[in-house]
Each structure stands twice: as structure tokens, then as C-alpha cells.
Fold each of these.
Amino acid sequence: MDRLTAAQAAARLGVRTETLYAYVSRGLIARERGSHGSAFDPLEVERFARTRRRSTSPSHGGARVAGADGSPLAVIDTDIALIEDDELWIRGVPVQELIAAPGEPPQFDAVVRWLFERTEHPRAAPHPLVSAGAEAARRMLDALPPGAGAFSRLLAAVAALAAGDPERYDLRPEAVGRVATRLVAGLVDALAPIGDAPGSEAPVAERLWARLSGLPADSGRIRMLDAALILLVDHDMAASTLAARAAASARAHPYAVVAAGLGALDSALHGAVSASVHAMLRDVQQGTDPAAAVAAATRRSNAGIPGFGQPLYPGGDPRARALRDRMAALGDARADAALRIAAEVGDVVRERTGLLPTIDLMLAVMTVAGDMAPDAGETVFAIARSAGWCAHALDEYGRAPLRLRPIGRYVGPDPADVQRASSNARYAEEMR
């Protein structure tokens, strides 16, 4: 099993190596001695990091520093997502109820429209989202270097779609709703199909599947992807949503809002997590021992065990359960095999740390089962969350502008001291 060096373990805990060895001497964390020095079990370090995070409260000058222990820096009103009692609600509806039941058509298109229409429930027969300017966006994506990642492709698509939309600066609610639906559909249609692709009359999930996987797009797989899109449409004030709302507070148009959200989403602790989990599951699929694969993934991330431990859900991420149940009901051999691998990994993590799966684990299971690229999960995440970002932008447009511009508390050197030191230096130079 891959081990962490003392420096890596200390960095994960956010302490000096001297403090790390103090923990060792007190029996709080174990180490192994070897020819290259001390080595630490990454899962043990992660377990201790979680325990320490809950029990400490950093302070500054005797006062607790807001946000230093993971608590919110601010509270922002939202009428979109509610996380309470280990459940996620979207506009007052449990997110699981938004997913299409077996035999029903995909519902993501209807959910996106519903975010802007303010109706009670999106169960009306959905009309597929229609894009505009996707051909120009596709040409821009074709000009990117081979192997460009999901973030680069999506960001280029947003820029191209914005350039051709005359309504992008119209911030009236009805215009924002039209722009948002075109934007979400355009992100999908701008991506190059892997094989035969359905036309614009097909639901978004079906069009997206043809751009992520070369496997046949049967109804079960389409509904699985559709469920993932719905489960990821919004999640309260995630880092990317905060970035999107800050842009909207400055009256950025919806395309710029989505670009701001993408910048925060493309990060190791947010939208890119599923790629790390994808690599971990592939390792196990190719014969690596699950415990060793988990340790290696944890060591690579240096930010916890990817795919496990969503702090907002002490009892487990309901989105992960919903997507797992949808995949388990498929009767698909590939999905069943990927779920078995995830269960083996989950057993190791739960036994060693007590952490439960997040939506990122199940998103990676879906990309492995669908024989997709490692960053396909980030693409699904970004397309789904773009709708949520636009809904947050619409809310922000109705509030005081620039209200999300915080005031910094300066903690640097005293300007008077700097000027005094500079004057002394000049005087010393003149006296030479």
C-alpha cells in the first residue's frame, strides 16, 4: 500500500512535521519506520484529519476566525436547493422525485425549464431543450489541441455560444430563462459525437450520451444519465455556485456567470473529483487490490479519499444512493460490474474511516460502466450545474448589485513600518 512521507502527512493535516511527530508520540496517529524514514498510512491520516477537523476551532487574537474550521463565511438566501436531514430538496421537491420513473421519458429538460418557470412540479411532458449557435461552438472546439480536457472544451463552447446570442445582455427574467435553456443545450450540442448522434428533437440526456460513450444508447442508459444530470443540477452554495452568484452580483450576463462557475468547478475538490475516482476504479478493475487502490488515490489527491465523505450528509449522500439504485435496476452487466468494484472500495473505506460514498463515486461508476473518458463525469457535472448557476443568477439579478463584494480584513505589515524601514534603508545607503 502506498504510504505518505512525513512531509505529505503533515501537509494533509495542515501542521508542521514537529506537530505531526507530537501526535505520534501521544499515540494519536501511527507511523512505520523504514530505510527512507517515517511512513504513514494515508487512510489513517485521513481518519485523523476528519476527527481533528471536527474538534478544533482555529482563532485569531482570541476570536474565532470565520470559515477557518470549515464553517460558512456568510449565509446567502436561496430558494433553489435545501439540504436538511440528509436530504436534498430542489424548490421544495425531494430530488429523488424529480427523476423519471421506469417507463417515463427523461426529465432533465423539464427540470431545467421548471427552474425558471416557477411552477409547482416539472412533471409535465418535457420538450427537449433547443440550442442555438452550436455549430459555431463545435468549430471552435475542433480548433482546440488534441486531448483538450473537459474544462477547456466547455469553456470554449460557452464563449462561442455567447458570441452568437443577441439576448445575452438582457437580464429580464423571461430572457434569462430563454438564454439558460439555449446555453445548457448548446453545451451538449457543441461536443463532437462519438458515433451516430440523435437530432435536436431528442432529450438532452440522449444527445449527451452519444457524445460521451460509444456504447448503444438504450433507454436504461439514457435514464441513468438523465438521473445523474438531475441529481447534479444544484447543491446549495457550492464553491462554483458562489463564484457564479458573485459574477451575477456584478451583473455579468448568464454566459459569463457560467464561465465563472466553470472556473471554480474545475478543481480537485469539486467537479474534477470524479476523474480521480474513475482512475481508482479502473485500477481495481485491472487487478489492483482495493485497499492499495484507495491508498494510492488518497496519496495522489492529498485532499482526502476521492468519492467519500460529503460533510453536508452525515448519514450518507442521498444523490449517491439515488444514482446507485438507478444503475442497479438497469440489469446491465457493465453497470453491475462497476457497482461491485465500488462496493469493494466502499467496504475498505467504511471499515478504515467510517466515510460513506458521495455522488462523485457513483458518477465515476457510471463513466466506467459507460466506457467513457475519465473526465466525462466533469462534463456531466458542468452541464447539469450550468442550469443551476443560471437559476442562481436570475435570483441575484433581482437583488442589490455588488452585494457579494466582501470587505477584506488586512493582516499584512503595517504601512508605517514599511515606510520607516524603507527610509532607514535609504538613509543607510546615503551614508555609505
Amino acid sequence: MRFTDVDVTPPPTAQHVFIARQPIFDGRDRRVAYELLYRASREATHAYVGDVSPALMCGDTALHALLSIGLEKLTAGTRAYVNVTEEHLLGELYKIFDPAAVVLELLETVDGSPAVVDACQRAVADGYTLALDDYDGRASLDPLLAFAKIVKVDVLATPDIRTLAPMVAALNARGITVLAERVETQEALAAARDAGFALFQGYVYSRPETLDGRAVNVQQATVFHIMALLNEPDATDGALEEAFRSHPSLSLSLLRIVNSASFGGRGVDSIPYAIRLVGREALSRWMLIMLVASVGSRSPVAHEAVMEALVRGRFCETVTAQGASGDPAARFLVGLLSRMDTLLGLPMAQVLERLPVSNDVRDALLEGTGPHAGVLRLADAYESAEWAMVDMLATDTQLSSLYAEAVTWANERLAKITS
């Protein structure tokens, strides 16, 4: 794998299957699904095989990649919205998925031709849920409304989202749930709710204003203090024990960590022994996870942001471990901390004032420079499905597998802290 600041494109024969995800929330800010964003290959470089088009083969590659990685890893059992082209639909490639696990999202290029209508009828009869992407009310989509349970509307280009209320009401009257996508701000989210939208998707859920800035609470302040002690060579185990004792829930979390199978320390009931068993380096890593987990109890949106931070940290770590130059542990720290300003509702500079981080980590987070900046840009691009930027920054075909592993890892670690 290679990171670079130069526009270097991998050879045209290289085939990448990239899969990311974006959460979908309901009107009570509960995450109800993920849209899976994927790209099967850089270009349609495949030759025709019989009557099968390049688009169909690319779609086949992407859908089977989702299957091989496993929806469970990417969604933790939550329903997945899977993009479906007309070729996917007519070829019934979606049948590799359990109907209860997916929503088939027909892309905006699909119109209500007789062949498409017949295919939709078959899919619904087989138990699949259909959604229409980028619905704009054009007449050619009318035949598909009889089969769609969900309609997605891009609200970003609408100056006053409330003007969409009549269209939303008409769709609701037909029993169709309407989803507002590309919701960028709190103002847009409020307007979409007023217009009658029931589901929401967009960057508003990963922006700092979503998690209203609060003062750092007692537990978070204690975690900051313990992390500082762990990085202080002269700090004694007694000082660490006293810091844990000052917050009982942290002591309980420490014992849960040590009693997990990964440490083989079942039955440990002494804080000093637990500290020595885990070791300061590993404990420092767990404290970071505790820090982000402490924010997740605020709301379902906050919990999702915590998950994103853990996934990003692990993704940056494993990408580095696969061959990129650099320290995987430092890359984990950079990835995790890159969301801490959002999670704590504080400017990044203030977050870093409380944490003992190296200048390289600080430069990556504040300036976007230094040896860790490339992997952070890669994580940003991957999560945003900016595949052209991903191509520029990395030459690895296993990114989707690494991302799926990061999701599984984050789910497991967060469960140990919050259970």
C-alpha cells in the first residue's frame, strides 16, 4: 500500500471493490439503517462476455463483494440499503441477499419501463422492499410508485425544503415513507421534519453542531487525567489506582476489560493487579475507547458518532499494518482523535491541550500535514465514498475487507465498555 500527496493512479488493470456506509435516522434520531456505498471498479474495462454488459459484470462484482464481506459485519444486523441499477434489477442479482436484510434502492437512472415494472413486481412478490433514489416527481417514475415503500429526495438543492411538503404529503397518502437525503445542516433537518419527511440521511449527523457542545463531565475529565498519568514515566501504580478510585464506573470498566478473554484474567478483583496485567500501553488505548464511549450515551446520534470514531481509528491502524509506512498504534490514535472535536463539542486545539500527543499527531489533526496526514485523508475519502480520491491515496484492493473488520472490531470493543 502507498500513500502519496501526488495524483498517482494505479494501473488501469487494477480492480478495486470499495464499500463504505452512511447511517439513516428516523425522526427520533434513532439509526434505523445504513446505505452501503460501493464502486465495483475504476472504469468499465471488462470485455463483453456473451450478452452480459460491463455494467452488469461490475454490478455482479460489487454485490458479490458485499456478500463475501458479509452484511452483518457492515451493519451489525441493521437493514442495508443496497444500490441497484436497471441491469441489477433485470438480472435479479439482488437475490443473493435475504429480503429481510436489505432495501433495494433503485438508482435515479431507472425509469418505469414495462420491463422494469415487471421486474419490480417480481422483486416485491419475493419479499424485497424497494426504494426510489433521487425522486423528482417525473412522470416516468409513476409506474414504480405502486411498488416502492420508500422514496428518497435530495433536499440539498432546494432553497426552502418546506416547499416540498405537498409532494411528501402526496407520497405519504400512498403509504410511501419519504427520506430526506443530503441533509447538511440543523436548519435543513428542522425544515425537512416540518415538511413531513420521516427518515433522514446526510452529513448533519457527523457535524459538530449535532452534538451540542457540553462541558467535559467528571468521567471524561478523569479519563483525560488517567491518560496523562499513563504517559508520565514517573507516575506510580498507586497514583493510577487513586485516579480510578475517584470514579467507580471507570474502575468497573477496567475490571471488565481485564476479565475479558483477550487478557485471560478472569476473576481479577484488584485495581493495581488489573493495571499491571493490562499494561500501561494497552490501558492507554482502552482509556481512549472509554473516552469516546462516554459520549455515546447522550443520544442515538452520539452513539453512532462514537462508532464512526472507533471504526476510523481501527481502519487507519489496519491500513498501516498492511504495508503503509508508519506506526499502526499512532495511526489508530490519529483516526480516533480526528472525531473527538465533534464528540466533545470542543475545538480540536482544546481537545489536544488535554491529551499528551506527539507533534506528528498534532500536525495531522490540526494542520493536515506530516506523516500521518495521508492515512487520515484516506479514511475521510473512504467514508465519504470519494472513490477517485481513494484511488489517489492508496493502491490496495482489500480496503473493503479492512473496513468491514474495523466495523466488527468497533462493535466488539464498544460492547465490552457499555455492557
Amino acid sequence: MLRLSISLLAVLLPALLTGCEPGTTASGSTSESGSAGLSLQLQYNGAALTCDSTLNIAGKPWALQQFQLYLSEFSVNNTPLLLDPTLPYQQANIALLGAVCDGNALNSRGNWQLKFASALPSGSLSFTVGVPQLRNHQDPLLAKTPLNQSDMFWSWQQGYKYLRLELAGKASDKVNSPQANAWALHLGATGCQSASVLRAPSKACAQPNLARINLPFQRGQTLQLDLAPLLHGINMSADNHCMSDINRLSCQTLLPRLGINGKALGWSMQ
């Protein structure tokens, strides 16, 4: 019996160690069948960005409070790709990535991993930052994950927040309120017309604000987003938030950098 147990352990131990090895699913496998996984790494000036990182913007220190975004409509070489719908945070054609900071840690809603229904081949990878129009206006209380997160939703009329970035000033300020040391960018559709905010529009919004990203991809690479090019030169203040309003000066700078009628900045494959 002892000899049998030792033999069984010798068979199982390598498999257990392989399953626990960090990074084995984050950026793909090098097996012949390819990998169905792809991770997103958030960066600032080329360094990994986490909840306890300090972002030096215009000489002031800032901390990440929340970064989440919806990615949808994946394809490689113009061939549609489906996600694995059995996993949390994703359906067949849409996924929610990112996290909300809780102290210096990522809370239980954090997710930085995409998993596709089949192996992800090398080629020209394309995806949309945002929620497709046909699914953008619904009741989040009845929606399935990941479209049921209420803080990523504006209203039936406007739909979802495609991307939510919120920062907080790290320096103490005894004069200004906490709100004065906060800054936010929320990307979503605008110019949506309906009878009320509780009604879905009957036609597409005037500004859908959906950004299409195209990147050359090789098996084993990681999807990266560096926030530094996006935030460069932005005046971080409470009265300079961007809620996708094209009439605000901050949005006139940020929206093109996000890929709305401009070239999206910060995206790469490494």
C-alpha cells in the first residue's frame, strides 16, 4: 500500500505543480494546439500599474481607484472569435476586465484574463472597447454577468460605461474636500434619444463612442494598455472630469486618444 501511494504521488505531483505555476495561463501556452487565454496588463510609463502604485501626473501623485472596461467583438484576420461563456466576467462576445481597488489590493471583482472558446491564433487581432449598440440599452438587474454590474451602467437611455477610470490624489489636502482630489474618465455613448432615461432609444446614439483596436498578435504575447499616453498633459481636477461629453475640453483631448475619431494610444502586444 505504501509503495502504491508513493507511485501515485509521483504521477500527480508534477501535474499539481504545473497547475500552480504562476503565469501559465496569463499570456498563453506554447503547445502545438496554441492557447485560448490572453491577459491584459495595465501599465503607466511602461511599468505595471497596481492599486498601490503612484502615478506622477503633472508633478502630483495619484493612485488608482478603479479601472474597468468592456471588450467585445473579437476577431483575428477578420475571422470572429468567441469567448468561453462558462466563465465569470464574460459572455460569448463580451468581457469585463479590470478591478476596483480596495485599500492596496484588488477586490473580488478583479479580472484581467480573457479566455476564448478555441485556440487563439497568431495574426491581426481586433476588438472593440465598448458594448455593441444592440446590447447597450437593457435592464442591468436582469442582465447576465458581466453586464449586471450596476456601477458600470448609466441608464437605459445612455447604456453602459464602456470604460471607467477613477484616480485619487495621494497627497493630503486640508483645504480642499476629498472630491477636489479626485478625477474620473467614463467612456460611453452620448446623444441617445428616448422618451425618458428609463427608456431605451429606438435608434443608435448620435455618438456611439465605440473604439476599434487592431494589433498584430503572436502566440504567447500579453495585451498591454499604458495609461501614460492617454493622460499626458491632462489637468487633473474635480471640474475637469470627462463623462464622454464632446463639449468638454478634457473630453475633446481624451476621446481621440481612446480611439474615438482618432488613433487609440497606449495599446500594444508584448
Amino acid sequence: MKWSLRRSTQAAQKIPLDAHNQIHNSILRQALSIRNYNIPAALRVIYQQGSSLTYVEIGSTQVPMIGAKEKRAFTLNVGVSASGALLPFQAIYAGKSTKSLPNETHDGYKEAQQLGFCFEFSQTDTYWSTLDTMKRYVVSILAPYFTSQKAALKLDPDHECIWQIDVSPVHTSEHPYIIIDYIPGGCTGIFQPCYSKRTRKPKPLCENSKWWKDL
């Protein structure tokens, strides 16, 4: 195969030296938007791409995961509101037609559709999110969620909302009432609110920071 063992030549993204200050400023910006626009918890959504992690009850010693041994990869986009509501998932598969998606006769497919899950093919050779898939996430999942919550809270249809996402070219956009709050570059692992403590990574730096506890 003409392969040889080589050391990496490109360093991974590092946590900024002023990460605490950047995170602090990020929290203050979001707090300012919440105050100025009176944004309730149900209208603040945290976005994160899925990984090999999952959620289990606190104290569990075993963490089973269906399909963990399967080699077909896909991107799972997850949204959780500050009120605790879990938004429908968007799953992105590599491919250029519906043949790349799960079979409609597969167990659980109908239930997933009833829950509002969206199965997308990337129209590329990878399963990464693209600008088009991000637009469909907003149109099919995020905006309908915000609309339903504003109706339940008897708020104006144009009431401001917050969407917290990573800094990424495909995440750059504008929306009439959605305030996009970016996680500072390089700070996802220590500031992403959907961070799972079951990983072996260090705890988020902000958890132990004095200013975090004072907010």
C-alpha cells in the first residue's frame, strides 16, 4: 500500500492562553443579550456535533451504545435548550442520493421521523456538515422549535432567541431573530455546555473559576 510510519507534522488546535478571559467575555455577551431582549431559557439553544459519547444515568458503570461496532460514520447534530429540551437530531451521511440514508423499513425509522429527526445526504464524499445542511437544520429543526416555544410562552413571533455554536465557516449566517453566539476559537473542549464528564478530558476550566461561580 506504500505506507510508512510518520510523525504528525501539524499541531492540533491549542487552547488560547487567554481562554479564561475569552470565555468570561463570551458569558457576559450572552448575559447582555438575555437581559436586553428578555430571552427565556427555552429560547436559548446550544448546538453540538455528536461523537462517540452518549448520556446515561449518573452512577452507571456500563455505557452501552447501539451500533458502536459499525464502521459507517455519520455526523449527528444535536441541539439542547437551556430549559433542558432536547431538539430532534440531524444525521448527515456521505453520498449524493437518498441511497446513502438509512432504509425506511429499518427498525426505528418511523419513530425517528415522528420525533422530527432529519436524515440528510451531504452531496459530497464526506459526512461533514455543509452550508446547505446547516441551512436545512435551521429551517427544519431550529426555527420550528423556536416558533413552538414562543407560541407556548405567548411571545411575539419575532422575539429574539440565542443559538450558541462553534466558530466554523459553515456556521456563519444571519437570521432575523436568532442571535448567534459563538464559542471562542479553541475553547470548545473547556466551554461547550454539552461537554460530557465521561470523557477523559480535563474538566472545563470555567467550572472551577471564581468568576464562573460569581455569575
